[in-house]
Design goal:
By secondary structure, this protein is of the alpha/beta class. The protein is built from five helices and five strands, in the order βαβαβααβαβ. The longest helix has 14 residues.
Length: 177
């Protein structure tokens, strides 16, 4: 069993100062409300049998995972492939306007490239494969907690969770294809 948890609410108050622009947005920590969300999530009895926590490298997810690790006394492992959706899958820096256009297109096409065309943004199938690759490496450990981002969870489970929400997922040969 895998327990996906979307990170707590982030605090972007420093977004337009310091280095929190472009990829720097991923350095935003949890807000006080986000910390409270994850503290409440840690009390969920489903998590008490977990053996390992995997986390996205982005601060909001990593801070969420650290709270869970402390509260549940579980080892924490950072997995770089659990990063957020890519507005540009070539890892090019995009202006906020360009990234917003890519996201709007992603939403318009429901995460799938239209008419088998190729786009610069990351598709749902690509996100799904990225996450499944991480999970396949951890198959021998169960149950695990995976702290990451709403779109990643949605790519596997079809549901975009709220901050701190737990989404159960069973890894099987059916969803590994």
């Amino acid at each position: 069993m895998i327990y996906f948890i979307r990170h707590g609410q982030a605090d972007y108050s420093e977004k337009d100062s310091k280095i929190y622009q472009g990829f720097g947005n991923h350095m935003a920590p949890l807000s006080p409300r986000g910390i409270q969300e994850i503290e409440e999530t840690a009390a969920d009895p489903r998590l008490h049998q977990a053996k390992l926590i995997l986390s996205s490298p982005y601060v909001r997810a990593l801070q969420s995972a650290a709270i869970l690790s402390r509260r549940l006394q579980l080892p924490l492992q950072v997995e770089t492939d659990l990063h957020e959706w890519l507005a540009d899958k070539r890892y090019h820096y995009l202006s906020e306007e360009q990234a917003a256009r890519h996201y709007k297109e992603f939403v318009t096409y429901k995460g799938f490239y239209p008419d088998k065309s190729e786009k610069n943004w990351e598709s749902i199938p690509a996100m799904r494969q990225r996450v499944l690759h991480v999970l396949a490496r951890c198959r021998s450990v169960s149950p695990i907690i995976v702290v990451c981002h709403g779109l990643l969870i949605q790519s596997l489970c079809g549901h975009h969770p709220q901050n701190g929400e737990i989404v159960e997922f069973s890894l099987s040969s059916d969803n590994m294809d």
